[in-house]
Write a structure and sequence with these properties.
It holds the Pfam family LRR_1. The protein is an all-beta fold and 245 residues long. 0% of the residues lie in helices and 26% in strands. The protein has no helices and 19 strands. The chain has a ten-stranded parallel beta sheet with strand order 1-3-5-7-9-11-13-14-16-18, with no helix packed on it. The chain has a six-stranded parallel beta sheet with strand order 2-4-6-8-10-12, with no helix packed on it.
Length: 245
């Protein structure tokens, strides 16, 4: 009874098999860091997989909408490939999804409004893509989110104020936002007291650095480079001992 198929770093070539129905108990397929190509078969949408990982291959084409039918899916990681096209709104049906990694592909378009339903997300990464539009307000629905990476994604600012409710966040990285040069004030992150990494580089932030930044006692890495901040560094930073800037 095959439940896990882990074939990482095996120098595999070729395309993905469409028929996984022969393995009805298959929960995990990890083909990371091989030389596989082609597209994700639509037939995979009929499986009951929990983990799909295909990091670092040569896959192309769009993500098939049928992936949104895998109601058991918890982790979907397809970073460092050549996937393209818009993300199917059907992915918003993945009611158990905790990890969605799409970094370093050629995805375009806006994040689907249906993503507001991904309330179980803990780790969302979309850096190094060609998305368009602003960072959507829908991220405020992801109240279980612990890591958010939007670096060089193609999205524009401002950082939506609704981000303030993501109190479980430990790692927030947003950088290189597109835009017309209109600045926005520092986002309201005072309740993110668990933050260990805060990177807001080249986000067109204007004005003063708020006092609460120096009061994030768990913070170890802070990068606010290439913004339009002014004024003095708050006195609250005097008590910060472990952070690197």
């Amino acid at each position: 009874m095959l439940k896990h198929r882990v074939l990482k770093n095996q120098n595999l070539e070729g395309s993905l098999p469409p028929d996984l129905s022969r393995f009805p108990y298959l929960q995990e397929i990890d083909l990371s860091r091989n030389y596989l190509n082609g597209t994700i078969p639509r037939e995979w949408g009929a499986t009951q997989m929990v983990n799909i990982s295909m990091v670092g291959n040569r896959f192309t084409g769009p993500i098939p909408k049928e992936i949104g039918n895998i109601s058991t899916l918890v982790n979907f990681t397809v970073e460092f490939n050549q996937f393209s096209g818009v993300l199917p709104p059907e992915l918003g049906n993945l009611s158990r999804l905790e990890k969605l990694h799409l970094t370093s592909n050629n995805f375009t378009g806006q994040l689907p409004a249906a993503f507001e339903k991904l309330t179980t997300l803990k780790d969302f990464r979309i850096g190094d893509n060609q998305f368009t539009g602003e960072i959507p307000n829908l991220i405020q629905n992801w109240t279980n989110l612990q890591k958010l990476v939007i670096q060089g994604s193609g999205l524009s600012g401002p950082i939506p104020p609704g981000i303030a409710v993501l109190e479980k966040m430990t790692d927030l990285r947003i950088s290189d936002l597109q835009g017309n040069g209109t600045g926005a004030p520092f986002p309201p992150l005072a309740k993110m007291i668990k933050l260990k990494i805060l990177i807001l580089r080249s986000c067109n932030i204007i004005g003063l650095i708020p006092d609460f930044v120096g009061e994030l006692t768990s913070l170890k890495t802070l990068d606010l480079s290439f913004n339009k901040l002014d004024g003095e560094i708050p006195d609250s930073f005097l008590g910060v001992k472990q952070a690197t800037y």
